[in-house]
Specification:
39% of the residues lie in helices and 16% in strands. Strand 4 and strand 5 form a beta hairpin. The chain is elongated.
Length: 152
């Protein structure tokens, strides 16, 4: 399944409440480059709307940090090659990415975007492969810096 074309997030957040066993509330939206949906069974409609508002706000916050599908800190980092004073949550995301990179012996590498784009666009993958390398990322609270032509 192509993640860019379809990703559906479904969650059952609350157990049926007395008197609300048949209450089913739905939210559909977009985020992270795809369609999203959330279904709550047994939720009071007022609480469901509050939950949906919080979910939407959190998706917008995450997208402002790490979306490849709209302007975000990540798209600015990829465009400029550096990002001064990154948000702590973006640092947390990239620190976790580095930990997963280490735990997988490099099998997970967030720097594969140039290769992915080369394959998608039919350009030279060998040139793009030379840009891969998590070890070349410099990550500090003051700045995130990529090597030339790297992207996450």
């Amino acid at each position: 399944m192509n993640r860019r074309r379809f990703l559906c997030l479904t969650a059952a957040a609350l157990a049926p409440l007395p008197g609300h066993a048949e209450t089913f509330t739905a939210w559909d939206g977009t985020g992270l480059g795809t369609s999203l949906s959330l279904r709550l069974l047994g939720a009071d409609p007022h609480h469901a709307r509050q939950t949906f508002a919080r979910v939407g706000a959190e998706i917008a916050r995450i997208e402002s940090l790490a979306s490849l599908h709209r302007d975000s800190a990540l798209t600015r980092l990829n465009r400029d090659g550096h990002l001064a004073w990154p948000a702590p949550d973006l640092l947390d995301i990239l620190t976790l990415a580095g930990q997963v990179h280490a735990a997988t012996g490099g099998a997970f590498d967030p720097t594969v975007l140039p290769l992915w784009l080369a394959l998608a666009n039919g350009t030279d993958p060998e040139t793009a492969r030379m840009r891969i390398g998590w070890d070349r990322i410099r990550l500090t609270p003051e700045e995130i810096r990529l090597d030339p032509r790297q992207a996450l």
